[in-house]
Write a structure and sequence with these properties.
The protein is mostly helical. The protein is about 80% helix and about 0% strand. The protein folds into 2 domains: about 140 residues, no CATH class; about 45 residues. Helix 6 runs antiparallel to helix 7. The two termini are about 25 Å apart.
Length: about 200
């Protein structure tokens, strides 16, 4: 029953990041169709995977993901040129993609790089390098729009919010220690409320 109580008391408001993700996906698909790219689905997936929780995370992760996409598309083109949709090549290519992302310290790029590789391998264009170019372009478009929307539409400043919440938690903990020393009743709910505020900001 504990999980049910936590669910009932949890904050279920629609976060701004969710709304911005929907806007970014709509825009990425529209632009992909406008440019005549053939894989808007990839643009949509890349957009969802690139919407960061903060400006700093969004920009840094976006840069890594762009390199990861180029890497995955290039590997996909190479492997598809030999045998497209080959199960063994798919597994081997994913291993190489993940290893190179780790080797080049492209944190956060592994999943999108692997996805781009797989998209190229299973593309129905018939030309592996055209598939690599198309899939890579759609993925890069999705990343760029996700970062752009995150920066332009009510950019989150979670660092300041967390600092304020930590300051409030510190004050309430200090008051709780004083109450405990004086053998007064401790305001546990106030402390729990401050902790919940921090958790909500982090997981928003």
């Amino acid at each position: 029953m504990g999980w049910f109580v936590r669910f009932v008391h949890a904050d279920h408001r629609l976060g701004m990041r969710v709304v911005k993700t929907g806007i970014a996906v709509t825009l990425s698909i529209a632009v992909s169709n406008l440019l005549g790219l053939e894989e808007p689905f990839i643009a949509a997936v890349a957009t969802v995977m690139s919407m960061g929780k903060s400006i700093d995370i969004s920009v840094r992760s976006g840069k890594n993901k762009m390199f990861g996409v180029v890497l995955g598309a290039a590997l996909g083109g190479c492997f598809a040129a030999f045998s497209p949709a080959n199960a063994g090549f798919c597994g081997l290519g994913i291993i190489v993609s993940l290893y190179l992302c780790h080797l080049f310290r492209l944190d956060g790029a592994q999943a999108l790089s692997s996805f781009t590789f797989a998209a190229v391998m299973f593309s129905r264009t018939g030309d592996p390098w055209l598939a690599a170019l198309t899939c890579g372009a759609d993925a890069l478009l999705g990343i760029g729009i996700a970062v752009g929307i995150n920066l332009a539409v009510l950019p989150p400043n979670y660092a300041e919010q967390i600092k304020r919440s930590f300051a409030a938690l510190r004050e309430r903990l200090s008051a709780a220690v004083e109450d405990a020393a004086a053998r007064r009743q401790i305001d546990v709910e106030a402390v729990e409320s401050s902790i919940s505020d921090i958790e909500r900001i982090i997981h928003r």
